[in-house]
Amino acid sequence: MTAVLWFRRDLRLSDHPALVAAAEAGGEVLACYVLDPRLAATAGARRLQYLYDALADLRAGLDGRLLILEEDPRTAIPRVAEAVGASAVHVSQEFTPFAARRDEQVRTALGDVEWVATGSPYLVSPGRVTKSDGTPFKVFTPFFSAWREHGWRRPAQSSATSATWIDPAEVTGGISELPATDAEIDLPAGESAALRQWRKFAGEGLESYSDQRNRLDAGGTSRMSAHLKFGTIHPRTLAADIGRGQGPQAYLRELAFRDFYAAVLHAWPDSAWRNWNKSFDAIEVDEGRDAGQAFEAWKAGRTGFPVVDAGMRQLAATGFLPNRVRMIAASFLVKDLHLPWQWGARWFLDQLVDGDMANNQHGWQWVAGCGTDAAPYFRVFNPALQGAKFDPTGAYVRSWVEELAALPDDVDVHRLGTNRPEGYPEPMVDHKQERAEALRRYEALR
Prior knowledge:
By secondary structure, the chain is mainly α. Helices cover 47% and strands 6% of the residues. The chain has 19 helices and six strands. Strands 1, 2, 3, 4, 5 and 6 form a six-stranded parallel β-sheet that branches. Strand 1, helix 1 and strand 2 form a beta-alpha-beta unit. It starts with a strand and ends with a helix. 44% of the residues are buried.
């Protein structure tokens, strides 16, 4: 009863239901990962670097007994299964449109080899929490109530010793050296790093999370998003440590949002790149040469709006952005520059270490007003007010906008006025005017 355990977005050994299922079959298990050229061609360099580092950590946890292939999984997995005489291929189920298509093609190619999907990257897998009539939720608040009522299992008991592992040298085609990129990431990758980061945050930041998570000058985020993206830790492991206090419950709500957006993308797969609310297909957006130049200034952090520029420069330097700045920067792109949300979503996916299709795309659609449970069309973030509220000391802006770093502490970096240093750009738009223009375009849809 030999089995193949195909790792994907579950690069860990603890709390791994698919590992438990493969081991319980009673035979030997081949652990493998397939570097899909199609994904490598579309993933940003930082995300790939996290992946390679996490794979190195996983391989070390298995004492080298991880087969890593660099080819199309639609041919690789059936070939590997045949090579070891596997009766089953075990996976954690995935739900993005790309993954669903890929898995169906692999299942077909496997023929009589059993396909066993156990668990998923979520507390509650997409499609399990629905309205009473079985249809998917379109609004988060009732989803959250039903999600909590549904509940989830305790962490699965698994480790490197759960299975008898097959030596990957028995299978041809594996690579011994992982690829590398020129990208630098600002956090260590892999299961051991994820567990360390969670213990640190749970001990030092979880209780104050509700008060600190939006403070840009306080570093109150958990920094667990990349670990959750790649499954180097499971959200069940996090939820098991979450108590009933205000901070812990605020964090649990963010995990629910992660499940909600995955459920939305699963129910409406074309919303990955198209407006969930089809009425927004008619909204007027700017395109052409001037729009392209504005987009480049936004990407480079040269808009003249300090908190926007700080965020875009942090993104370019580290591959991470606090959620509050993601919203501010996204609102500026969509409602001050009037550019398509898809432009910004694509750039974020290219740059973010934690770039996740469901979270990213539907976060952008929330800001743009065209998604489920979206922000009201009239909500247009004022960068100066947002900066003053969430970076009151100006420490965040000063840390990322070098032109402003030397300004005296008594200078409000969010409202520079005559204090704008030489070399730092003037605001590229008049926010008040562009807010009015955004509202005009939104009203035209109504």
